[in-house]
Amino acid sequence: MNLTRTRERGDFYCPTCGATQSYRLRARRPFLTLYLIPTVPIGAPELFVQCDHCRSSWDETVLQMDRAAHELVQEEKFRDEAIRSAVLMTLVDDVISEPEIESLLSLSAVLFDRPIDREELGRLCSIARQAGIQVNNYVLTVSKRWTMQQRLLALQGMFLAATAAEEEDGLSKKKLATLRSMRDLLELTDQEFETAIDDALNYNIA
């Protein structure tokens, strides 16, 4: 049986709420029970922080970080996720061409300010293929915590990656359909979607 006790209370910046909230520092510890009565502790207590507002649980180190630090961590996480989304977009057709590789390397540095090299790009492609990760499923999962500005930026990255190696008759049907699906996955209006695509055409990704 696990017994949980509150050790202290206070205020902290909750990453889930995006605001300062009250918290409880709690200790969870397993006990050996005798006739359903906890008698002997059989492990060290596990400390965690619980937000009183959203009930999210965090490692106690969350108390050492302020709002600026949290936002920086979230921004860095977004950049990684946006690059992965662009990589997955190029893999929709199961192949990745040299122009697409060059485009992804440029996108990571210019658009997302998070340069990657060919070795890292190769690892991302390998992991995606081995795990069978689909861009739609990935974006649906990670975009829930993106801001509107981040959603638009990620869309632009995916568009530029998808159009890096246009075929003679334009985008493949699979890539075109996948790009169109991003409007609903990212919860964008038609105008927001079209404006983001138009603005992407002005980027100098070389």
TrEMBL record:
It comes from the Bacteria. This is Zinc ribbon domain-containing protein. The lineage of its organism: Bacteria, Pseudomonadati, Planctomycetota, Planctomycetia, Pirellulales.
